[in-house]
Design brief:
mainly alpha; about 85% helix
């Protein structure tokens, strides 16, 4: 019952965001900023002496993931301020979304404690590179494309992710505060649950890409060095 009511609330919030907002554009901006943070972290790690790409890239992505969660929190604060101002708090937002306030307040009272633990031609290329180099080049390109696809998947599922963050972080929290009893489920559980797999895939694929590129060009310690090696 609790999960059913919460799922209903999330669905209503998703419909509201798709009707009134541009969640995928917001997520694209967040993912782009996260990627920029990852590049900056990688640059900083390189200058700190971490020259091995298959180590540096995954570490930079893991660090950037914390920036992603921070940006989600800022988005939640922005949306909460707008909705609270327009509708006078979580109960007003629940009315706006056609969510049964009393049922959610009763049915989700223990949700936080119950779920807190979840958590060119071939011949031409062959003239320039040998077969091993071609294989590692293909692996690196495919891995990078896969990492980009994982990021785009997060953009695609943005409405559902934002809806869950909004429900857990604002609507339900306001209802709990009104009851002054128990603790609501923190929004970060849903955010991590929906994004940890794409994030892990990105970490693994960029690690694989770093390994392939450094095997292809052993003296390289960045993508720029690899490009210069290929062009030279």
């Amino acid at each position: 019952m609790k999960d059913g009511l919460r799922s209903y609330a999330i669905k209503r919030a998703e419909q509201y965001l798709l009707r009134k907002d541009v969640p995928r554009l917001h997520m694209l901006m967040i993912v782009t900023a996260t990627g920029a943070a990852g590049f900056l972290f990688s640059f900083a790690l390189l200058h700190l002496g971490v020259e091995t790409m298959w180590i540096r890239y995954p570490v930079a992505v893991a660090m950037a993931y914390s920036v992603f969660l921070l940006l989600l929190r800022l988005w939640l604060a922005y949306q909460s301020a707008i909705l609270a101002g327009d509708r006078g708090g979580g109960a007003g937002v629940a009315d706006l979304l056609d969510i049964p306030v009393d049922q959610i307040a009763d049915g989700l009272l223990q949700l936080g404690t119950d779920q807190a633990g979840d958590i060119g031609s071939g011949a031409g290329i062959a003239d320039i590179f040998d077969l091993d180099e071609i294989v590692f080049l293909i692996v690196a390109v495919v891995a990078i494309i896969g990492a980009l696809a994982a990021s785009l998947y997060i953009v695609y599922m943005a409405p559902a992710l934002f809806a869950e963050v909004l429900v857990d972080g604002f609507v339900v929290s306001c209802l709990y505060r009104r009851l002054r009893k128990g603790e609501p489920r923190h929004w970060i559980y849903g955010a991590v649950r929906r994004t940890w797999i794409p994030a892990l895939v990105t970490v693994l694929l960029l690690g694989l890409a770093g390994y392939a590129m450094q095997t292809l060009a052993p003296t390289a310690n960045s993508i720029g060095d690899v490009c210069r090696y290929l062009l030279g």
